[in-house]
Amino acid sequence: NAIQGTWIFEAKMNGQTATTTFNVGTTTGIKNKTSENLFFVQYLQNEKMIRTGLLQNELLKQVQVFDVLGKSLITSTKNEIDTQKLSKGLYIVVATDIENNYYVQKVLVD
């Protein structure tokens, strides 16, 4: 289970700071349903692809891939995401269903 509260991702480079804030487990931010096993993420190494899905009847509206600093790298309306342009590393996948519920999962791309 994710720790509920406000998560702040901050990156500094060349004297500039970029900050992204997520609220996990609150009604105003990301409602993490992964503990209910409703959302899955698979990294398919041979195909260089992330596959996502919802196990219940919810319909997927959007999938976003973030780096660990909180920068949005990919936004898609498809459940399969090409990872060929991503470097090896840890990423955060956030999916939104048609009722605007959010699902969060980490994925390691290697």
What proportion of the residues form beta strands (DSSP E)?
over 45%
Number of distinct beta strands: 9
Radius of gyration: 14 Å
The percent range for helix content is under 10%
In terms of structural class, how would the helical and strand content be classed?
Answer: mainly beta
SSE arrangement, N to C: EEEEEEEEE
Main sheet attributes: strand count, strand direction, barrel closure: 4 strands, antiparallel
What does the average pLDDT come to? 76
Question: Characteristics of this structure?
Answer:
110 residues, single chain, globular, 0% helix, mainly beta, four-stranded antiparallel sheet, three-stranded antiparallel sheet
Describe the structure.
With 110 residues, this protein is mainly β. The protein is 0% helix and 57% strand. The model is unreliable at 26-31 (pLDDT under 50). The chain is globular. It is built from no helices and 9 strands. Strand 3 (39-44) and strand 4 form a beta hairpin. The strands form 3 sheets. A 4-stranded antiparallel sheet has the order 6-5-8-9, with no helix packed on it. It has a 3-stranded antiparallel sheet with strand order 3-4-7, with no helix packed on it. A two-stranded antiparallel ribbon has the order 1-2.
Describe the protein's topology.
Layout: E1 5-13, E2 16-24, E3 39-44, E4 49-54, E5 60-67, E6 72-76, E7 80-82, E8 89-97, E9 102-109
Antiparallel strand pairs: 1-2, 3-4, 4-7, 5-6, 5-8, 8-9
Can you summarize this structure?
The protein is mainly beta and 110 residues long.
